[in-house]
Write a structure and sequence with these properties.
By secondary structure, the chain is an alpha+beta fold. The chain has 12 helices and 23 strands. An 8-stranded mixed sheet has the order 6-5-9-3-2-12-15-14, with no helix packed on it.
Length: 499
């Protein structure tokens, strides 16, 4: 027989391990993730790894019924935690046990588990719910588009609140399985790969999978009657494009644009590296809005984007976001330039490719287009504020900053940075400051002053600064308008999110 002898210090340690944490050690998770632009967005205390959404949608009534299973890991001892959600909840279970829940404010679902949750433990949350998304209005706008034959979820900076419970901020990205049942003859379009579909008793279920981390606002759902085209890329990725059957006169231009998605993507790979996801495509539903959105793997395009004919430039913009915005998402919404400045600059590079004006010519023209007293220059792309987050200056002045960087460090380092940033930060998040430090590391040059001038000063960079950056147009002679300018400017409504 062997006896275990504990010395006093070991005995004390073993007793400490045996004592459970007191109730005082468990506190509610924060009701926001800490983004000053949108204090209610996201939540604290946990990190989601996967969403499994099982939905049923009736287009004639707009009734959405759902069961969301959320897999997460706690980041603190939690007595309670929140999800962002607006529809009516009927039941919540945490780790298989019924949990108490209550609604708070416009979008907070407060959940109190039967037992407190210890830090660094896996947790499963099942939420059953129902409601009509089109009747939900938060902060004066909606992310749900009611259409003649169904509904569409696509909006920025928040969208999930209208159709599934989530930690609705880009900092908490997760993989997704989205399964949607709709009446026979109706289709359900979402992100990623269509794994399967089956019909039973008048209903058809579509099962979609996104296997790379995805911000909740980039999840999308479109229910209606679509013409669908499918293909595969040279590397074998599935391609799926969808067009509402009642696009009217915009139908031809929409197809002539979106069907070039593979070509555009292969061209962007030359600048940004391998395409980061498991599928690609786009969809054009019969909505009344005018904007487009980089919903992951399958961008959303309003029909009005094609009112003047084919619009490949908007496809370039949204596909560029698959690297800059989706694979590498913002750390906070003030970092929107890391999304939009690069997507706009991609349109300038496409113009170079098409022989319709170089990026330098576009930069010169835009610099000259806006006089010093134009409010355009008061917007700071590096921190524009929530009211100016999607202002045209974030896009155009943001692209000017990139041209200034290109001229400062040369093409070799510039394009190495464009390709390196989405590679080293794949499936993660980045800030403006992170990018500046990365650009300094690759180029070996101090760049803080350049970015301060072009991203943060609320005035037009003076002629000497423009000359240093080799941006022309500072004299009285306005540069000639590049041929592509009107095409690119025609996409400016992609910035109008109908807020």
């Amino acid at each position: 027989m062997h006896r275990r002898i504990l010395v006093p210090s070991a005995l004390a340690a073993s007793l400490l391990l045996a004592i459970p944490a007191s109730a005082a050690d468990f506190v509610p998770g924060a009701s926001g993730i800490g983004d000053p632009y949108y204090p209610a967005s996201g939540n604290g205390g946990y990190d989601v790894s996967h969403y499994d959404l099982r939905l049923k949608y009736q287009p004639t009534t707009d009734l959405l019924e759902g069961t969301a299973t959320i897999l997460a890991t706690t980041k603190q001892n939690l007595s309670r935690f929140n999800l962002d959600f607006g529809l009516t909840v009927t039941d919540v279970r945490v780790n298989g046990r019924k949990a108490a829940f209550a609604k708070s404010g416009d979008q907070e679902l407060e959940i109190t588990p039967a037992s407190p949750l210890e830090r660094n433990r896996p947790v499963s949350v099942v939420v059953k719910y129902a409601g009509k998304p089109s009747e939900l209005n938060i902060g004066g706008y909606t992310a749900w588009h009611r259409t003649p034959d169904g509904g569409v979820a696509a909006q920025q900076p928040e969208a999930a609140v209208w159709w599934f419970p989530s930690n609705d901020h880009p900092l908490d990205k997760a993989t997704f399985d989205i399964s949607v049942s709709v009446p026979d003859g109706t289709q359900a379009i979402s992100n990623g790969v269509l794994q399967s579909q089956s019909s039973r008793l008048g209903w058809t279920r579509y099962n979609w999978r996104s296997n790379k981390p995805q911000a909740p606002y980039l999840a999308t759902l479109a229910v209606g009657k679509f013409d669908i085209t499918t293909d595969r890329t040279a590397s074998g990725l599935p391609v799926l494009n969808a067009y509402s059957k009642d696009l009217g006169d915009n139908a031809g231009a929409a197809r002539a644009s979106v069907e070039r998605t593979v070509e555009v993507t292969e061209w962007l790979e030359e600048y940004f590296g391998p395409y980061p996801f498991n599928a690609l495509g786009g969809y054009v539903p019969n909505v009344k809005s005018g904007y487009a959105l980089e919903t992951q793997t399958r961008p959303f395009y309003s029909p009005r984007q094609f009112a003047n004919g084919a619009n490949v430039s908007v496809v370039v913009h949204e596909q560029a976001h698959q690297w800059y915005g989706d694979s590498v998402s913002v750390k906070g919404w003030k970092d929107i330039w890391v999304n939009e400045g690069f997507a706009r600059y991609s349109q300038w590079l496409w113009s170079e490719k098409e022989g319709e004006g170089t990026a330098q010519e576009l930069a010169d023209y835009i610099y000259a287009l806006h006089p010093a007293d134009d409010p355009f220059w008061t917007v700071k792309p590096g921190d524009p504020g929530p009211d100016k987050q999607f202002d045209i200056a974030v896009y155009d002045r943001g692209a000017l900053a990139l041209q200034a960087l290109r001229n400062e460090i040369g093409d070799d380092d510039f394009f190495a940075i464009l390709k390196g940033w989405p590679t080293v930060n794949a499936n993660g998040n980045g800030s403006v400051g992170d990018f500046v430090r990365y650009a300094e590391k690759i180029s070996g040059k101090p760049l803080a002053e350049l970015f301060e001038t072009w991203l943060y000063e609320p005035t037009k960079p003076a002629a000497p600064a423009a000359a240093d950056a080799r941006i022309a147009g500072a004299d009285s002679v306005r540069p000639v308008q590049p041929k592509s300018y009107k095409k690119i400017a025609a996409t400016n409504t992609i910035h109008d999110h109908d807020h």
